[in-house]
Amino acid sequence: xxxxxxxxxxxxxxxxxxxxxxxxxxxxxxxxxxxxxxxxxxxxxxxxxxxxxxxxxxxxxxxxxxxxxxxxxxxxxxxxxxxxxxxxxxxxxxxxxxxxxxxxxxxxxxxxxxxxxxxxxxxxxxxxxxxxxxxxxxxxxxxxxxxxxxxxxxxxxxxxxxxxxxxxxxxxxxxxxxxxxxxxxxxxxxxxxxxxxxxxxxxxxxxxxxxxxxxxxxxxxxxxxxxxxxxxxxxxxxxxxxxxxxxxxxxxxxxxxxxxxxxxxxxxxxxxxxxxxxxxxxxxxxxxxxxxxxxxxxxxxxxxxxxxxxxxxxxxxxxxxxxxxxxxxxxxxxxxxxxxxxxxxxxxxxxxxxxxxxxxxxxxxxxxxxxxxxxxxxxxxxxxxxxxxxxxxxxxxxxxxxxxxxxxxxxxxxxxxxxxxxxxxxxxxxxxxxxxxxxxxxxxxxxxxxxxxxxxxxxxxxxxxxxxxxxxxxxxxxxxxxxxxxxxxxxxxxxxxxxxxxxxxxxxxxxxxxxxxxxxxxxxxxxxxxxxxxxxxxxxxxxxxxxxxxxxxxxxxxxxxxxxxxxxxxxxxxxxxxxxxxxxxxxxxxxxxxxxxxxxxxxxxxxxxxxxxxxxxxxxxxxxxxxxxxxxxxxxxxxxxxxxxxxxxxxxxxxxxxxxxxxxxxxxxxxxxxxxxxxxxxxxxxxxxxxxxxxxxxxxxxxxxxxxxxxxxxxxxxxxxxxxxxxxxxxxxxxxxxxxxxxxxxxxxxxxxxxxxxxxxxxxxxxxxxxxxxxxxxxxxxxxxxxxxxxxxxxxxxxxxxxxxxxxxxxxxx
Length: 814
Fold this sequence. Notes:
The structure is a single chain. By secondary structure, the protein is of the alpha+beta class. It contains 31 helices and 33 strands. The protein is 43% helix and 27% strand. The strands form seven sheets. It has an eight-stranded mixed β-barrel with strand order 25-26-28-29-30-31-32-33, surrounded by four helices. A five-stranded antiparallel β-sheet has the order 2-1-5-4-3, with helices on both faces. Helix 20 crosses helix 21 and helix 22 (622-642) packs parallel to helix 24 (664-674). It is elongated, with a radius of gyration of 49 Å. Residues 1-7 have low confidence and may be disordered.
């Protein structure tokens, strides 16, 4: 029956119809399709039955089948779907299913199809635009609105609802009067006037105000609006945006507050802040701090950059000018120099200059901070003086003497001149000190110092180099005969009667003399030989003087064989290590251990390190000894760990020659890796004298090892001649106070003041500080009182063998 019906309808009109038409029987088979249907689907109906749903995308087939069943029930159905196209792969169609009614029964279905792709694309595009707009407004926290004047209707974007604290699902767009209820009372009139002005004149407006959300929360917003007019000039619409600026307002207020704080600090800083525009050679920033330092009005500097240079001390101008050249390369410089203020006062200043280069590498601006460090300089000079001078005689100490002597030797080497070193020993001083007391002894030394100072000139150094010993250097000696005259004059002054507290005292002196370059070409050798000559005088017990002669060196024989034996000692396994613990001052808990090399000579027994270490330094065997100590310490640490002991860091004394050896850093790393030792368990102790001549290279090696985890201690602090500069430049982890200070720490006087200053300095620099050579209860109590955190010395334990250290580690507390 359906086929007969189709025959009647199968006319040329259906074939040429622009939309695709399918005739489908009740079983869902396609009985007929026109040309347009073929073009839409890319499928031609064949005699073999074909289902319409077979053409539809799998994900849509069930949906299409449901709609088809509804059409078979006599319902007209319309829906969009996606079909599989032979060429385009996928195609969006809009399908209308129309039931075919024959004799009041559904005999089949018409499927009328049209291409829905372009409509779908437009719909998707519009949807994407709406989504993007909503997202952009949400991200920017901006809401949009428009008001139709003629229809008195408004539109709000979803984000505007969020700004007002309303839900977009409420579909509530209030009138202008209702909007005013959300506005802070103080801002309502301003907003109303702005809107009315725009409606009457067509002018745009922008305004900032505070709105109050339904929950009571206040928000600060910024609103902008434009008026639109028709051809007759009548205002028909207002279009605007509302930006929630609450957070940015808070940030802006905070920035203003920070700026005010900065200005307050900037104008009240003791330091001066300045900035120079290099192309114009003008000072563009000059704070009040600059005026306070120089005593000159800041406006004068702003008008004349060259004014800076006129304040610099004449002696410091070359050094300052030299440093300025580094700025051209883009390097920041730090300089300390002297200035004369407008009132003529001399000050020390610290100036830090920070350059700015343009893209071509040309200097365009210099920013700087200048500080008055006069008080700091005086304090540092005072501490430096205390560290390099003997407080009793008010003379340079041995380290200061050695430093000055080295300078004189360099001068004489250039001038091919000579100098004489006198080592003077007071023969009866110890007897007087022991019988009459330290106070009398100190007064005696002070009187002698005053007498001998008459010999001091720019070419003469006088210093205290021992408890009862003085060192004197006379520069530019031309004749040996001068030594006899000087020695006689010195002896005459010393041997004069000295009256102290009704005591008439007499002392004699023994003087040993060495001449540069005949008796030595370095400070150490000259001092050693002068000291040896002085001892020869003392041996005969006379007040006299002697020139050094190699024949008087009774130790030469022993030194020769010690040096010879030193070369075989490592091979013969004659060296061993003793360990001395370092403990917390109060709890006595072991903090770390110092490794001390010892030599058991087959002929002379235990040889003092003071005898063989200098020999090792001179013969360069110190490097092999140092490597032997590092290897044995790491091996011992590994053994202690294998025994289940809770190990602590071990410090090792290292010489500058060892530090300077090529590959030292790699050797340390390899040794630690070989024994599986954490680098933090190794500390190297370095003395100032060992680094003074090689500061730059030593610092580089130290920096590499510190990055690796190894720590460094400055040993014998306080006896050196440049301790403070070393603390600043080398950044040691630990500071060890020399035992000579600890021995006199309980004596009220300058020695105690120095010790206190060193402790204060260490605390200020946040350094770990250890006092060496602590032997008495009084010394311990002094260190506890002044918060010295760690001690080392016989009061805790002498140096002991590794077996005893293992027992200590088990106890943890000594």
